[in-house]
Design goal:
Blueprint: E1 2-6, H1 10-21, E2 25-30, E3 45-48, H2 54-59, E4 67-70, H3 75-87, E5 93-98, H4 104-109, E6 114-116, H5 122-129, E7 136-139, E8 146-151, E9 170-177, E10 180-182, E11 195-200, H6 202-214
Parallel strand pairs: 1-2, 1-4, 2-3, 4-5, 5-6
Antiparallel strand pairs: 7-8, 8-11, 9-10, 9-11
Helix pairs in contact: 1-5
Length: 217
């Protein structure tokens, strides 16, 4: 994947280095040249400039990007970069970091996944911009039960969450929506960009993958 990371603070630099080490094509855009020194194990490209500058985005090959993460220290900058990435460049996987959690619902309604800074981790943003990754969050001691997070495919938005309980090997146990976690999910319907928490057996992991890829419940 070709991924653009706007901002090279603690999260941005760690994210860029991890993605680079995993073999992705990564471009980091940062206004402060000194901040780029954080990239001590990075094999991608760096650009000094603004993440919403047209010339900078041209240098970053935004038109060919698969994902963009806006992780600067400013909410407005991150949202602007994310909207330009989505609306002007058609980048499919876009996420913006915010510091004001009260804005999360507004931005989610604009179709931009956001995570408040108190909930933000490098692994969390990777789940948004590289949704093909299928991490296991927790495994029981005997290796027979897993806790996994999966993003709801757009095609499955609007379905009752109960339908995601596929069989005795797959159970929905939680929901993260707009940066807020919930376990009381009875009677709720899935929305675009929801993150669902599943408890699955090894066979359930296979079943869940197949079902989400089919985008049919």
């Amino acid at each position: 994947m070709h991924i653009v990371v706007i901002g090279c603070g603690r999260v941005g630099s760690e994210l860029a280095m991890q993605l680079s080490e995993e073999g992705h094509s990564v471009v980091v855009v940062e206004k402060n040249r000194d901040s780029l020194r954080r990239l001590n194990r990075f094999h991608g490209k760096t650009i000094v400039g603004s993440g919403f500058d047209r010339d900078v985005l041209l240098q970053a090959d935004a038109g060919g990007a698969d994902a963009l993460a806006a992780v600067t220290s400013g909410d407005n900058t991150n949202i602007l970069c994310a909207r330009i990435a989505r609306d002007n460049y058609g980048i499919k996987n876009v996420v913006a970091r915010i510091y004001d959690p009260q804005r999360a619902d507004i931005y989610m309604k604009l179709g931009i996944p956001t995570v408040a800074t108190s909930l933000w981790t490098t692994q969390q943003v990777k789940r948004w911009i590289t949704p093909s990754d299928e991490p296991i969050e927790w495994t029981g001691g005997a290796g027979t039960l897993h806790l996994v997070e999966r993003i709801v495919p757009d095609a499955l938005a609007g379905h009752p969450l109960s339908l995601f309980n596929l069989n005795e090997d797959v159970r929905v146990v939680g929901l993260v929506r707009g940066g807020q976690g919930r376990v009381n999910i009875e009677d709720l319907f899935a929305q675009e960009d929801d993150v669902l928490e599943f408890l699955v057996t090894p066979q359930g992991l296979v079943d869940l993958k197949a079902k989400l890829e089919s985008k049919v419940l």
